[in-house]
Structure formats: structure tokens, C-alpha cells
Amino acid sequence: THQGRWRHWFGFELRNDPFDTYYFVDDDPTPRPIDGYQTDGLFDIGINYLSQEWEREEAPFCMCISVEPPHDPLVAPRELQQAWEGRQIQLPGNFAAESEEQRQTYILNRQRYYAMVENLDDNVGRMRAFLEDEGLANDTVIVFVSDHGEMGGSHGLRAKQWPYEESVGIALIVRDPRCERRRGTVIEDPTCTEDLFPTILGLGGLTPRNQLPGVDLSPLIRGDMARLEREGVLLQFVAEHRTWASFHEEVWRGMRTRRYKYTAKGDKFGAKPWQFFDLAEDPEELANLVDEPGCREEIARHHRRLCDRLRETDDPFVLLPAFGCGGVNMWE
């Protein structure tokens, strides 16, 4: 892992077992075990650093704590996991299973996933309590984000990879003590990972030296603007090298706007229109409208926007002609 410009680097070894985690400090190659559950241990490292090593007189701090849970294998601290396994949980309307055995497996996986989420939530609360106790809460911006979601039995699927909201519709949560009047505000504009770097700089009052592909969301967070000028963001599933996994043979791209989601899927010879959902009327994505004549104009508009975005980003994805648009990355 690359330390980059971080003054101190605590890099943990990816092991996909939250009870078997080791980390490394800066350039020291000595592995250091985390006793207990990974999320608890990594937050301990962050809190201990701020309380024991960071000197307030030096400069403002920027800290990133990145944890694996919730993630396979679905295991949480024992008491928390047992508590969730004993609870009745509410299932979404798009939950589906091919058999009763699969249904019970999906439910058990959800219960354990929720236990892992509660543990993470507890640790975020623990960090917030520390910042309060140290008098730092009113001078610290907290950004919470994930890299993907979990299907958890929705549409009869598990894991990630799919363009459904359970997989790609992850939250970006910001707590800025300077914007208390904005507390609880929900912003409908879709965002993407390219926005994170300019947004974090913007929250710190900084401007990137170079032009970046993302958007600084800090004016939107502060309420200085009502909505973003751009209409939506590009969704990508670039490659799957595991021969047994979904999308090994075909991958997809999509456009997610405030109300709609359009995707195209295909192999190296070209992708075709695949899905179109009206998320305002159908938030659980139960009705694929891609072949609905009444939606053709809106689908065509999203297809054109996808074509434009693929060209703007030099995306090598091959998109076949459709809705009056020529192909993208086609052999001539």
C-alpha cells in the first residue's frame, strides 16, 4: 500500500477476516496484530493517535479510517451477532429466493450484516464522543462513505456487482458543524467517487491545483446552491476476472440521474440497452421499462447522455447503435 503524502500511515493487511487483522506503521515491515474485532481495533488506532501522538499546535488534521466490515465473511462481535440473529427483520418488497433454504440463508446473512453495521455505527459514535470530550467536535468535519452496498437477497441476489440501488446507491453522509441549519438535509443529486477529493478539499477551504473530473460538493452541502448543474453520473462495472462470477462474460455501464437509471450491457463486441427504471415511482426497481414505448423518449435521452459521457471519459466500453445514436468505440 502506498503511503503517499500521509504524515503517518497505519496500513492493515486485507485478509477478509475481521478477527484476524494485522497492520503496519509507516515503513516498518513488522506486522502488528489487532486484538479482537477489526472495526473496534482500527478506531482504537485512530482515537489513540489523536489523543497521544497528534499535537494540536502542529496543524489541522485529516484522518481516514477505512474498515472492511460489513463485508464477507459475515461475522460480527459475538453478543451483537447473537442479538441480531434472534430478531425479526423487515424485508424489502423486492426480496426473493428460489427456495425456503435460500430464503433463510439470505435472512441470516442480513441479520449478521446488520450486526456488522451496528458495530460500525457504534464506533463512529465512539469517535464522535471522543471529539466532543476533546473539544474538537465543533471544528471537525466528518465524512462517511462506502465503496459499495449489498444485495442481501433483493432481486434474489447477494453481494455487489449489480447496478441495482442496493449495490450502487451508497450513502455519502457529511457532518459539518458550521452548517447546523442543514442538519438532516437529504440531497437527491447523484454523486460519485470522483467528487470525493475536490469535496474534501472544498470542505477544508482548499482548491485543487489541477482541473479534476469530479465536482466540489461543498457548496451543495452548505446550501449555497440548490442542486448541481450536471444531470447525473456514470456507473461502471469494468471487468470481472473470476470465471464463475456474474458479469465475467458481459459487463455494463449506466447513467444515474435524479429520477432515472439507465444501463447497457454487453461483451467486447458491443453492449445493448438493458435496464431503465423510474426510481421515483419504482424505488425497488421491480419494473424494467427499457422496452416500454411510453418511456422511449426518456430512455433515448439517457442513452445519448451515456454515449456522451463514455466519449468524455475515454471509456473503452463498446456501445452498439441504439435510439438513433451511432455506436461508441465501434470498429469502422
Largest sheet: 4 strands, antiparallel
| CATH architecture label name of the largest domain | 3-Layer(aba) Sandwich
Low-confidence stretches at least 5 residues in length (pLDDT < 50)?
Answer: none
The percent range for helix content is 25-40%
Mean pLDDT figure: 93
| Cα separation of the termini | 42 Å
CATH third-tier fold name of the largest domain: Alkaline Phosphatase, subunit A
- Total of DSSP H or I helical runs spanning 4+ residues: 7
- Taking all Cα atoms into account, the compactness measure Rg is 22 Å
Structural class, from helix and strand content?
Answer: alpha+beta
How many extended strands?
9
Globular, elongated, flat, extended or rod-shaped: what is the shape? Answer: globular
* Structural domains: how many: 2
Estimate the strand proportion: 5-15%
**Main sheet strand line-up:** 6-7-8-9
Q: What is the CATH H-level superfamily of the largest domain?
A: Alkaline Phosphatase, subunit A
Listing every helix as H and every strand as E from the N terminus to the C terminus, the arrangement reads: EEEHHHEHEHHEEEEH
CATH level 1 class label of the largest domain: Alpha Beta
